[in-house]
Structure formats: structure tokens, C-alpha cells
Q: What sequence folds into this?
């Protein structure tokens, strides 16, 4: 016996929505579920719990303790998804949170994952809860002509009502038990023998451990489930880790405080998600200025007549000398109303200058406090790239990085890189010569070796045991890093002297003159 | 649409919730399940891995947690598995647990028979199949639950897992498949003719006719028949029975009276899991011993127990309230 539903109806959508559904607008499960999280944020929830049924992935459930949805609100939302925006710009919810999106769009996201799902909600103060069965399966095959005709039906729903305690308020969105068409696709890369991950250092007890574990990986590709967790955390309006985004940097404290004030937590399979940005992660990167640097940015456009803020962006770009891991972190992520749009963009919003491998060590976030919202496409994952606000953002970013006629921080990165490379080259050289000297000493057991520089030598270095000397041709093409500059020559000498103990061809006075000539760039080891 | 009769399940859910909080249910929880789980914990010398068909109140889990038989971490409960098919209840349980490694949104039978990772991942020290329905439902296929039980035992045996199995059924004639009951009656009858236990049967019910028992006292019939069926399945997969217990209590629901029957089977895994010429005598012996144990054991009437001890009902109810209160406090 099937119960008679309280309300039945069709879900209507604007033409653009229909087209997007048929092509699959959401890039990934994380992008789709992010919309449910956004809805919960708007509804004043303090807690969102997502369960993916790992490792089976046969069902997905999203619970939040927000204000709930009423029968009327559901019907309104389904009247026309993608239609007029009923939300007022600047409107805020509890905890002074800026409203993110629209209920209809959030629910649409679920359609990307499954053709059938259920919404259960109890509105604050109501003595009932609703259970809404949604089915888009009968409407899936779309004729291209329908798109051109305008609005259309994308699904149907049935609403049931049951008693509930007045003080309870929540929304649950889930796939029905026994459903077989969930498209989470998170099993790839999963070793189902393990309870959580395929690699030992990804068996994390906390999300912070997980992020740290990911950060020290070099070449191992994350499985789809790990990528999902990481992506969801980076997109949602959740807090940073205590030390995030960059350890020891207080320039972002105001943003961290703002996020904290929203009192909003998202859990995925038991992990409390935080923004997975905890830089630098690599243990070899310790020194700001040489190993990594932060370049904050801000842009504000105010209407001169009305004094209204038309555009306000605030962000940072971080660069480190080693490649960033995971690679998903490379690029720029734009956040509107605290929610990440799309993914980290490695093209840096189509930055026109080739910066080579620099981008592999670069990551950044840009928070849009005002503007740009109208440039958002309906999927809330991409921008209309000819919109004025988007162009403003691009220009801001390009100027910050640097253009041919406007030097930006890229120049500083190049300078840092050159210095680091030079230091590394010197280190390499010194190490090279030290190695040779050690071999020489072992071979001939002679502490009183003479060093001679011989540009005609056909090899970089030759031990002449009879003469008790080492002949060095520092101009030899096989010597590392091609021709040696004066600076490196000096370092070699110094290193050789320290290693071997005697430099007889060049006196200390000569060395001193060299140092003065080179401007005091000497290095002691 | 994959769905269900929401009004019917809503009503059933309310009944189940009331039942779960009842004194008799909690008596079993505290005086039967808890000691058995504690014994298992003592033998293993580690927190137990516990699978349950719990409800949103999670009283069994809370009780085990209070007694430190199961582990709880900042993430959730790493040793718990559960199964629930109603969306709202599934979500409520998940929210309270925060996380556990095994959570199946669907029916128990689907989980065991159709979930593709069941064989790899299902491995528990205590399995609590606290069914709210009857063992052989009127609607076909009536044997699916026992198919699932057999599969579960098979998988546990493959893991070499000795474990405790708590089995609960409802006994209400109108809801049961009469053909299945007849078959069970015939099975009992033929077994009594050739196997051991006939004397114990007579001693217990004062006659030797299982069909008569089926017609006159269904719950007693099910106690014997289900035990025998279960023990046969367990032996087939290489288990021997080290403990057996049965309990009954009587309820009056919206659609008339019924009984709740509870079984405890403690199963020891053996290396010889295959039925072969060599180990058949051992298996037969184990089977006979198991059936004898079940037939000799008169099920305890929980209602009688509650009546004999003054204030016990109130004490149990207070215990339930306290568990719920502690759980809400710890989750705030």
C-alpha cells in the first residue's frame, strides 16, 4: 500500500539549467556536495555531517542542523530553478553570515550525483517534518529542442508530512536505501582491503594528520576519495587550521577570525574539515624569504558618486621554491561569500605571461567581499569571463604577479630563485671540490698538496702524485654549471684550503685582494 | 522511485522506539547482552568490534561504551558497524555516532547478500541481529533473512572469527508464512525421529508432536525450530556452539499480542570448516550437542523476572533515561 502523498509536483527549470544538467555541470562530487553545504550555511546551521558510506560508496547522506525547509519553500524552490533571484544582495543570516546561494541550485547539485533522493526537513517551531521524494529519472533523456523551447520539467516530487518535536530543526538529504544509481565514483585508488587508505601515512586519525600526510607525498597520486575530501575541505566555508594558511603569518588573522565567528563546522565521514592549507608543508622549507614568501593583495573599487563599494577583493599568493603538493593546491582559488568557486586555477585566471615552473610552487586565495557575484555562472563553479568584475579581478591579479611594463612579485620570485640556485650551485661546487680533495687525500695520504690552476688541462682535475699537486681546470666544460664565475672560483679555493690544508700557489694576500675585488661576497664554511 | 510506504514505516518506527526503551528490553540489554559482550572483551583483551541493528537512541552502544567494551575516539566509534534502511533513522544514528567504519543504508538482507564489499570488510566479534520482524514473513521470499544469516556465518567463518550472535525475532502468527512454519515443523518432526533431543523435547513441552506445538504455542515452537535451524547452519560452516541462551517476553501491540524471542549463540570457529568424510563425525557430534543444549534450555520469561523483583522496572527505566541523558551531555 502506497501512502497518498500530501503534495505532488514537477520540478521546473530554466533552459540553461536543463542544458547544464544534460552536460553535467558539476566537475566533481565535492563540487556538487559543496552546494548542499552552502545551503546549510545559509540556513544558519552550525553543523553539517556528510557521510559517503566509505568504502562502499553506495549512499550519500548530508545532515545539517539549520533552520529547515518548509513545504512551501520546497514548492517555491521547485517552481523554477534558475529563475529570478529572490535573494537580496547584502542580506545576511545568523552569525552575520553572507547568504551564499539558492535552495534550488543546491538541490540541483544532488541531481548530478543521483537520479533519486530524499529531502527530510523539520523547520524550527513546526510540529511537522516533511519528507520529499525526488525523482528525475523519467526526465533524464533530453531532446536538444527542449532546451531551445525555454523552461522545462526536470523531475517530479512528492511531499509527505509527519509529526515532529517543535524544538527540532534539521535538513537531511540522502539517497534512498537500495538506490543503485549513485554516481560518487570514489573507489578508484582505494585499496578496499584497508579501512581508510591505500598508503600507510594516509591512515589519519584527524583531518590535520591527513593534510600533513598528503603534503609530504612526492609522486604518489591521491585516490579519488582522498581527492574528494581534500577538495571538499578547500571549497567549503570552514575555518583554517590553527597554523594555516601559512605558519607564523598573522596577515590573514582577520579572515580566520571572521570564519571562526560564523560558527560553522563540516564533517565528512567523521573528519572535521578545515581548509587544507598548511604552508609550508615540506620539512625542508623553513625560512621565509629564501624558502618561501607571501605576497598579499587587495583591490577596492568605490563608486565616486555614491561611495558604494563596487568591488573588493582581498587575497594572498604564496610561493615556495619546491613544487607544491598536492598539485591541486597549485594556482589561485577565488572565493565568493567564503565558498570556493571551481578549483585552484593553475592558469592564474589566464595570466598571459609564461612564468614557467614558477606556478608549480605557487598557490593563493582571493576572497571577494563585494562584486563578482553577477559574473558567476549558474553552476557557481565558473565565471562569465567577459563580465566587467571578472576583468577587474584578472587585471588586479596580473598586476600583482607582474606584467612586462609593470613589475610585480614574480620578479622577486625570480630573484629569490636565482639566489637560491646560486647558493645551491656554490654548495654543489664546494661539495664537489670537497669530494675531490677527500679522494686526493686518501689516495696519496699527503696533507701538503699543492693546488694549481691550469686552463689547458684536458680534464677538470688531475692528481699528480709525483709532483704532489692537484691541477684544476675550472673552465673545463664538464665542470658543473658550465663556466665558473669569480665568486665560485673563490669558494672553491677556500673550500679546498679547508679540506686539504695547504694552498701554496696563491697567497693569503692574493686571496684577500680577491675578496675585496668581489665586494665581500665570501662565504665561510 | 525506490521508496517505501512512509506512513507504515513511520508507525512501525514509533512502535520500535517505544519497545527499545521498555524495561524488558533493557533487562535483556543489561543482564544478557552486556555480560556476553564483556566475556568476549575479556577473552580478546581489546575493545570488541560490534555490529548492531541499533535505533537512533543507540542504547546498546551507549551501554557498551559506558562499560568500556567498545572504543570511542575523537572521530567516532572505530569498532562499530550498523545497518538501517529508514533514511531519517540512518541519518540520526550517523549523527550520533559521528563516524564508524561500517554503516549500511539499507536492509540487513541486502547488506549481506548484495553488498559487494561485504565479504572483505564484515568482521565482527559480536553481531546483534535484533530484528523487529518475524523470522519467516508472509510475503515472499520468506527465507531471505535466513539466507542472509547463513551468508553472514559463512563470511565470519572465512575470517576465522569466533563470535557471539544475538538474534531477536518477533513471534506473531498472522505475519508469518504458514508454508515456512509447516516446513519447520516437519524438519523438527523428522529430526526427533532420528536425532537426539526427543526426550528433551517431551520434557519441555509434555508431548512429542512439533506440529501440535506449532498450533498451540507458536513462540515455544519457534524457540526450538529457529535454534535448530541456526545451529545447523553454524555447524555447516565449521562452528561449534559454546553457549546458548533464550529469552521471551510478551507484548501487546496495536494489532494484538505477540512475543519477542531472543537467542544468544556463542560460536567458536574451527579450522575444519569444510564438510568432508574426515570431519563429518565431529560436525555431527557438534550439531547434536548444540541441539541438545538448545532443547534442554528453557527460555527465560523476562516479564516474570521483572515481576519478581520489586522496583526493577523503575530501576531499568531510570537506567535508560540516564544513558540517554549522558549521551546527550557528551555530544553537546
A:
Amino acid at each position: 500500500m502506497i501512502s497518498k502523498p500530501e503534495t505532488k509536483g514537477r520540478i521546473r527549470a530554466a533552459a540553461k539549467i536543463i542544458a547544464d544538467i544534460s552536460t553535467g555541470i558539476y566537475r566533481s562530487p565535492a563540487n556538487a556536495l559543496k552546494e548542499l553545504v552552502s545551503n546549510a550555511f545559509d540556513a544558519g546551521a552550525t553543523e553539517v555531517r556528510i557521510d559517503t558510506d566509505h568504502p562502499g560508496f553506495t549512499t550519500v547522506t548530508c545532515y545539517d542542523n539549520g533552520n529547515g525547509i518548509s513545504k512551501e519553500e520546497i514548492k517555491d524552490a521547485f517552481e523554477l530553478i534558475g529563475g529570478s533571484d529572490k535573494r537580496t544582495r547584502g542580506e545576511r543570516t545568523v552569525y552575520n553570515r553572507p547568504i551564499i546561494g539558492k535552495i534550488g541550485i543546491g538541490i540541483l547539485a544532488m541531481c548530478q550525483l543521483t537520479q533519486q533522493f530524499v529531502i527530510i526537513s523539520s523547520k524550527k517551531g513546526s510540529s511537522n517534518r516533511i519528507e520529499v521524494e525526488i525523482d528525475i529519472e523519467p526526465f533524464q533523456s533530453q531532446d536538444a529542442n527542449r532546451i531551445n523551447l525555454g523552461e522545462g520539467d526536470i523531475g517530479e516530487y512528492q511531499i509527505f508530512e509527519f509529526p515532529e518535536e517543535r524544538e527540532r530543526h534539521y535538513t537531511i538529504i540522502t539517497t534512498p536505501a537500495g538506490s543503485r544509481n549513485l554516481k560518487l565514483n570514489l573507489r578508484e585508488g582505494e585499496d578496499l582491503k584497508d579501512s581508510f587508505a591505500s598508503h600507510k601515512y594516509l591512515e589519519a586519525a584527524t583531518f590535520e594528520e591527513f593534510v600533513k600526510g598528503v603534503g609530504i607525498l612526492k609522486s604518489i597520486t591521491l585516490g579519488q576519495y582522498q581527492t574528494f575530501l581534500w577538495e571538499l575541505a578547500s571549497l567549503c566555508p570552514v575555518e583554517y587550521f590553527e597554523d594555516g594558511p601559512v605558519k607564523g603569518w598573522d596577515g590573514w588573522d582577520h579572515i580566520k577570525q571572521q570564519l571562526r565567528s560564523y560558527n560553522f563546522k563540516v564533517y565528512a565521514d567523521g573528519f572535521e574539515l578545515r581548509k587544507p592549507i598548511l604552508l609550508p608543508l615540506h620539512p625542508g622549507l623553513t625560512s621565509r624569504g629564501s624558502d618561501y614568501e607571501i605576497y598579499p593583495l587587495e583591490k577596492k573599487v568605490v563608486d565616486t558618486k555614491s561611495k558604494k563599494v563596487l568591488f573588493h577583493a582581498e587575497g594572498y599568493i604564496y610561493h615556495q621554491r619546491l613544487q607544491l603538493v598536492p598539485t591541486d593546491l597549485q594556482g589561485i582559488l577565488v572565493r565568493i561569500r567564503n565558498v570556493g568557486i571551481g578549483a585552484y586555477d593553475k592558469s592564474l585566471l589566464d595570466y598571459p605571461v609564461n612564468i614557467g615552473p614558477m606556478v608549480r610552487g605557487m598557490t593563493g586565495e582571493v576572497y571577494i567581499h563585494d562584486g563578482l557575484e553577477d559574473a558567476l555562472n549558474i553552476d557557481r563553479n565558473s565565471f562569465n569571463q567577459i563580465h566587467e568584475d571578472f576583468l577587474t579581478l584578472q587585471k588586479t591579479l596580473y598586476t600583482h604577479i607582474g606584467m612586462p611594463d609593470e613589475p610585480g612579485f614574480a620578479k622577486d620570485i625570480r630573484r629569490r630563485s636565482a639566489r637560491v640556485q646560486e647558493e645551491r650551485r656554490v654548495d654543489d661546487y664546494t661539495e664537489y671540490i670537497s669530494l675531490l680533495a677527500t679522494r686526493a687525500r686518501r689516495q696519496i695520504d699527503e696533507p701538503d698538496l699543492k693546488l694549481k690552476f691550469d686552463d689547458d688541462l684536458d680534464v677538470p682535475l688531475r692528481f699528480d702524485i709525483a709532483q704532489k699537486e692537484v691541477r684544476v681546470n675550472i673552465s673545463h666544460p664538464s665542470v658543473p654549471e658550465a663556466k665558473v664565475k669569480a665568486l665560485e672560483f673563490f669558494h672553491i679555493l677556500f673550500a679546498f684550503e679547508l679540506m686539504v690544508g695547504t694552498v701554496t700557489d696563491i697567497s693569503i694576500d692574493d686571496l684577500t685582494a680577491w675578496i675585496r675585488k668581489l665586494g665581500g661576497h665570501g662565504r665561510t664554511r | 522511485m525506490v521508496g517505501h510506504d512512509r506512513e507504515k514505516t513511520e508507525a512501525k518506527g514509533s512502535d520500535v522506539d517505544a519497545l527499545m526503551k521498555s524495561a524488558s528490553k533493557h533487562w535483556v540489554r543489561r543482564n544478557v547482552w552486556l555480560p556476553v559482550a564483556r566475556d568476549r572483551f575479556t577473552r580478546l583483551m581489546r575493545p570488541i568490534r560490534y555490529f548492531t541493528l541499533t535505533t537512533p537512541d543507540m542504547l546498546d552502544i551507549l551501554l557498551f561504551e559506558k562499560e568500556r567494551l567498545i572504543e570511542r575516539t575523537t572521530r567516532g566509534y572505530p569498532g562499530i558497524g550498523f545497518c538501517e534502511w529508514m533514511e531519517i533513522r540512518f541519518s540520526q544514528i550517523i549523527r550520533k555516532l559521528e563516524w564508524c567504519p561500517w554503516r549500511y543504508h539499507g536492509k540487513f538482507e541486502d547488506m549481506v547478500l548484495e553488498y559487494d564489499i561485504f565479504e572483505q570488510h564484515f568482521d565482527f566479534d559480536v553481531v546483534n541481529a535484533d530484528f523487529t520482524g518475524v523470522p519467516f514473513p508472509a510475503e515472499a521470499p520468506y527465507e531471505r533473512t535466513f539466507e542472509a544469516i547463513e551468508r553472514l556465518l559463512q563470511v565470519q567463518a572465512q575470517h576465522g572469527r569466533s563470535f557471539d550472535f544475538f538474534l531477536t525475532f518477533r513471534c506473531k502468527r498472522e505475519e508469518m508464512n504458514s508454508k515456512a512454519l509447516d516446513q519447520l515443523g516437519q524438519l523438527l518432526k523428522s529430526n526427533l525421529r532420528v536425532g537426539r533431543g526427543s526426550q528433551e523435547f517431551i520434557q519441555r513441552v509434555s508431548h512429542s508432536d512439533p506440529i501440535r506445538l506449532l498450533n498451540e504455542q507458536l513462540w515455544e515452537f519457534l524457540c526450538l525450530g529457529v535454534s535448530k535451524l541456526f545451529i545447523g547452519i553454524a555447524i555447516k560452516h565449521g562452528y561449534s556452539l559454546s553457549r546458548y541462551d533464550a529469552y521471551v517476553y510478551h507484548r501487546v501491540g496495536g494489532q494484538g499480542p505477540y512475543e519477542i524471542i531472543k537467542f544468544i549463540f556463542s560460536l567458536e570457529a574451527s579450522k575444519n570448516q569444510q564438510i568432508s568424510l574426515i570431519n563429518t563425525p565431529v560436525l555431527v557430534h557438534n550439531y547434536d550437542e548444540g541441539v541438545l543444549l538448545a532443547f534442554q534450555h528453557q527460555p527465560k520469561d523476562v516479564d516474570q523476572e521483572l515481576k519478581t523483583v520489586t522496583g526493577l522496572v523503575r530501576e531499568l527505566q531510570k537506567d535508560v533515561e540516564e544513558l540517554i541523558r549522558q549521551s546527550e551531555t557528551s555530544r553537546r
Summary: Residues 192-202, 481-487, 498-508, 514-525 of chain A have pLDDT under 50 and may be disordered. The CA atoms of residues 452 and 471 of chain A lie 5 Å apart. DSSP finds twelve helices and 19 strands in chain A. The longest strand of chain A covers residues 152-163.
